[in-house]
């Protein structure tokens, strides 16, 4: 994705946000997503609910990165997106560096992090463990050191229309399909201190050209392929 394309998509999105202020007041005959649903929000919705009532270190992602009682790895989230996975890990005590290459997504993240910090309390404490970097992880990873690198590129598109899928559709409009994910995985495997965790659709084939995972943790719709490297 070039910076020009990314900026172009951002302008397009902004226009649609303005337009949706008008159209949202009208009845919607279908479930077409509106761009103003694309907000980085760590305090409300499903993310806020998971923060307050989530399953702690027993959750699949926490187990995949190797969190145990008394063991908290440092983490780089190489594909930050809306920061939801990174926030979950930070809320469990990990220091997380988030890398995002899309200027639009990076802007949404900056905004969400600032609002969550202003909210204070436990949420702000988790946000303080998160460091956001703007750049391409294939380049940035070499200058960082962390126990774990988390890689969650855009997944192949699916047809379901649930809200979470709509959110992914909007992100796809901005960032495209992450066709260079294999290259990112290679860099992650070469730079991670202990392990790389690839978040991938539950039923998808393993990523081509990448060694077999050491083990796998499978969730409802996604799975975590864990590659031990240390
Ligand atoms: C599926 S989303 C990640 C969602 C994220 N795990 C979350 O919890 O919100 C993929 C994101 O990774 C970003 N991305 C993909 N490849 C990247 C790279 N090489 N460097 C930095 N960001 C990348 C995309 O721009 C997109 O925002």
Question: How would you describe the overall organization of this protein?
Answer:
This protein has helices at residues 3-23, 45-53, 60-64, 84-91, 103-119, 121-127, 137-140, 163-175, 181-191, and strands at 75-77, 96-100, 130-134, 148-151, 195-201, 215-218, 222-228. Residues 14-33 have low confidence and may be disordered. The longest helix is centred in the N-terminal third of the chain and has 21 residues, at 3-23. The chain has a seven-stranded mixed beta sheet, with helices on both faces. The two termini are 32 Å apart. 41% of the residues lie in helices and 15% in strands. The chain has a single domain, classed as Vaccinia Virus protein VP39 (Rossmann fold, 3-Layer(aba) Sandwich). The protein is α/β, with parallel strands linked by helices and 230 residues long. The protein is built from nine helices and seven strands; from the N terminus they run αααβαβααβαβααβββ. Bound molecules: S-adenosylmethionine. Residues 78-79, 81-85, 99-102, 105, 136-138, 152-154, 171, 175, 178, 184 line the site of S-adenosylmethionine (SAM).
